[in-house]
Amino acid sequence: ADARTGGSTGSPAVVVKKDNPCSVLLPGEVETILGTPITMREIVDEVTCHFDYDKPVAGGPPFFEIKVYFKDGRTTITATRLASRLLGGDSGFEKLTGIGDEAWLGPMASTLTFVKGDAGVELDLRLVPDGREKGIRLAKLIADRL
Question: pTM for the whole thing?
Answer without folding.
Answer: 0.84
